[in-house]
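I hope you will forgive my troubling you with a question about protein structure. You will find the record immediately after this paragraph.
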Amino acid sequence: MIEDLRVYFGVYGFECDHTTITNQLGVPPTSAWNKGETYRVGFSSAVRTHSRWSLGTGLSASASVEDNLMRLVELLAPIIDRVNDVKQQFEASLVVVQHFKTANNDFSLSATCLERVSSLGLDLWFDQYYESRTS
């Protein structure tokens, strides 16, 4: 069972202000920060070690990996020329982050989804975590 799922288009490896990425792509990010910015972690603060610009899908927490990827295709296809320009300057990829409650999880993607995601010409990164809960 997936406890947490995040699927997004991410841009990394930039030294400019993240608003530069926003201006180049012409769409606002779901989240963005610059290296060196301070942020809260519980009652403490930490410093960002890298810059990131990300565009999420806006889908509900119950949406599948495939639904999220297909939504990203819908969001990115109309601006693919701008995405490619950004990709030439910085690291850019699609990212799937999954946190599982139980071991031995799997998921599948249809041939249609794989074809549409592939048409974007972006790397696809899967980051998966199994979080065991022991008493």
Notes: The first helix runs from residue 18 to 25. The helical segments are 18-25, 65-76, 80-89, 111-118.
